[in-house]
Structures are given as structure tokens and as C-alpha cells.
Amino acid sequence: MGMRQHGEGPAAMLAIGTANPTNLLPQDVFADNFFRMTKSDHLTQLKEKMNRICEKTGIEKRHFHLTEDTLGVHPEFLDRDLPSLDARIEMAATAVPKLAQSAATKAIAEWGRPATDITHLVFSTYSAWEAPSADLKLATLLGLPPTVCRTILSLHGCYGGGRALHLAKELAENNRGARVLVACAETTLVCLGSPDGANLVGYALFGDGAGAVIVGAGPFGEGERPLFEMVSATQTTIPRTEHVLGMQATAGGIDFHLAIQVPMLIGQNVERCLLDAFGDDAPCDWNELFWAVHPGGRPILDNIDTVLKLDTGKLAASRHVLREYGNMSGATIVFVLDELRRRRKEEDNGHLLPEWGAMLAFGPGITIETMVLRSPR
Ligand SMILES: CC(C)(COP(=O)(O)OP(=O)(O)OC[C@H]1O[C@@H](n2cnc3c(N)ncnc32)[C@H](O)[C@@H]1OP(=O)(O)O)[C@@H](O)C(=O)NCCC(=O)NCCSC(=O)/C=C/c1ccc(O)cc1
């Protein structure tokens, strides 16, 4: 009893996979397409504003499950005054687990062990609104054993990936031999609607994608290779900010709001979270670390650069993911981790990537998930 039931050492990420719908839209034509499809071209000021916003997002393209063809069959999706929630939920019920399956299949292939060796599944999405939910569908699609312990995290929004990884760490460390599949899948099909003054930023920012990570603690099996050790993790909620960021279900689809103060609030609070997470091990200079930051928006990354006095390029993986995919909410952090390990490979077996790193994810609350990472030597 006791010790033998626990995993050895900190848990580690053993494999990473990502996936996106094939349909993609360059950001420089997004406003034109969006206003044409929603028959809103007469709202010229709003369209100009959308173009101004799109230019400043730091995004070059985004992937979407919805295509012009699908939208042709569902005109109610593009008119907030028509009820569309039922149709959106039905579409998401199939699309979300399938997108997750594409990412998870890649992660499992990299891991090298059979899917039946997965003991736990943690699924995070803002697009599942029914029970049984996307976690069960994914388990079935992947052929996971009927004994797999499933958890669905809904509506953590953009920190869902950080929350899922944090939970997977605790599951892996507390259950010897556990192998946790973390899956995050997000699609804007539940929220995309017609433009109004309040939702332009979200429409300009959010994209569709899925990320999957296999998490386990020691002892490691033959061929299992830790990509990032998950040394410690914390969650912090910024007091009295519950109203600045959120989403809610309406008959016309999921509504969200992103207050203009969000980047500033994150900038003001991020260093304290890092000091809490690192404790006595906090470096004198944050540049000593590698960084996996959720690219919630370009000004969020800019503010973090400023308050932490980071050198140019420290957030390159986050900026790359934002540019190529936009903000895919909870799935985004997995793309950033994947990009970091790709860069590490190119940089001569980890020579240039520092040994220690920090992962940050933010979302409604405002909640900040912080994790101390170690890149094994
Ligand atoms: C690209 C933006 C929109 C503009 O860039 P900028 O450098 O701030 O440029 P400007 O200051 O010139 O702003 C351009 C215009 O955008 C307007 N704007 C500037 N932020 C705003 C604003 N939050 N509102 C509404 N107008 C604005 C701003 O007023 C201005 O309007 P105008 O003067 O008419 O051109 C930039 O501010 C930006 O990326 N903001 C988004 C940051 C943000 O809140 N990210 C979300 C973090 S949390 C997260 O990741 C997700 C949570 C989540 C939650 C729910 C879900 O369903 C899913 C997920």
C-alpha cells in the first residue's frame, strides 16, 4: 500500500498531436467573406472596424469546421435572431469528437503503445452541450477500454488545455502506471453568427482545432520518452474579474464577451502567478526559461513580454501558433507545446532550449493556469 500506488517523479508529457479542419480562411479576406456571407455589407462602419481589428490580431489564417456550403444549408447560423442552438449542438456532437480523434490518433501513434493502454481520459471543450458527451464518443472512436476513467471539462474556455494538463499530472502521479489522454477540441460552429458591435473581436480571433497529449509518470516503459516534465502547477483566479470574460448559451447560439481590459489584467497578474508557481526556484531573469504561453490575443503576448522583460523571440512559439491558427481556445496551448518541441529538435537536440520553462493559460474567471516545465536533458 501507500508508496507503491503512486507514480514516480513528476508526470511528463510523452506524446503530442494536433489537428485542424481542412477548410481555412486567410485573415486578410475574413472581414469581406464574413460580411458578405452574413449579408451585412451595408454595415460599412462595422465592416471597416472588423478590418481594423483583423489587421491587428497577429493572425494570418484560421481553420474552420463550417464551410460556405454548410452555412448555405444552415442560414439560421448567420442570423442571431433565428433559433440555431439545436442544430449547432447536433453538429458539434459529431464534429468535436472527430476533430479530437484526429489529434489523439497522432499522439497515440507517437507514443507507440496501443490505445487500450490508456487508463484515463480528460477531455476539454466549450462545444459539448449534451450527455453522454464528447469524452465517451472519443473513447469509442479510439477503441479505449470500457474501464477508462473519463472526465469532461466544459466551459473552462481558453484555460481548458492548461486545466486538463494540470489534472492529468495529478491523475498520473497518484495512480501508478496510469496513462492519461488529454484531448482538447474547439470549434467556433457553436458561436459564429452575424456581426454586431459586441462580438467582432471574438469572430476575428477564434479558430478551430484540437490538441492531444499523453501524460504519464514513471516508471516509463520501453520506448516512452518524456518530452516535457510537468514539475508543479497552480491555478489562480484574479478577484472580481468574473464579468470581463465569458460565454453563455442563447437560442441563437453561444454568445461570448471579451472586455477590452483583459490583456491589461493578465499583464498585471502574471508575474505574481509565476512567483507563486516557482517559489524559491524562481529565476532572477525570466529569460532563463523557455515559454509556452496561450496566445489569447496579440496584446496579451505583448503585455507579457513587457512585464516580464522578455527578449524578442521568447514567445516565438506562441506567436507562431497565433499567426497560423488564431486562438483555438483550450486547444491552443497544445499547439504551442508541439511547436516548442519541434523547435527544440531543430536546435540540435535541445541545446538551445533552456532546461526550465513556464506554461501559462488564461480564460474566464479570469483564471490563470501556471505550470513549471522541465525539458529533460
Ligand atoms: C486585435 C485586437 C482586437 C486589437 O488590437 P489592439 O492592438 O488592441 O488595437 P487597437 O487598440 O487599435 O484596437 C482596434 C479596435 O479594436 C477595439 N477593441 C480592442 N479590444 C476590444 C475588445 N475586447 N472588445 C471590443 N473592441 C475591442 C478597439 O476599441 C479598436 O476599435 P476602433 O478604435 O474602432 O478601431 C486586440 O486587442 C486583441 O487581440 N484583443 C483580444 C484579447 C483577448 O481578450 N483575448 C481573449 C483572452 S481569453 C481567451 O483566450 C478566451 C476566452 C474565451 C471566452 C469565451 C469563449 O467562448 C472562448 C474563449
TrEMBL record:
Cite the InterPro entries for this sequence: Chalcone/stilbene_synt_C (IPR012328), Chalcone/stilbene_synt_N (IPR001099), Polyketide_synthase_type-III (IPR011141), Thiolase-like (IPR016039)
Give yes or no: UniProt keyword Transferase: yes
| Bilayer-spanning residue ranges | none
**CDD domains documented for this protein:** CHS_like (cd00831)
Known Pfam families for this protein? Chal_sti_synt_C (PF02797), Chal_sti_synt_N (PF00195)
Q: Which terms in the Gene Ontology molecular function aspect does this entry carry?
A: acyltransferase activity, transferring groups other than amino-acyl groups
Please report the stretch or stretches of sequence annotated as the Chalcone/stilbene synthase C-terminal domain.
229-375
Q: Which UniProt keywords apply?
A: Acyltransferase, Transferase
Domain Chalcone/stilbene synthase N-terminal, by residue range, is 3-219
One GO biological process term: pollen wall assembly
Task: Show the active-site residues.
Answer: 158 (acyl-thioester intermediate)
Q: What is the similarity comment for this entry?
A: Belongs to the thiolase-like superfamily. Chalcone/stilbene synthases family.
Protein's name in the database: Chalcone synthase
Give the species. Hordeum vulgare subsp. vulgare
The root-end lineage is: Eukaryota, Viridiplantae, Streptophyta, Embryophyta, Tracheophyta
Query: Gene encoding this chain?
Result: LOC123429130
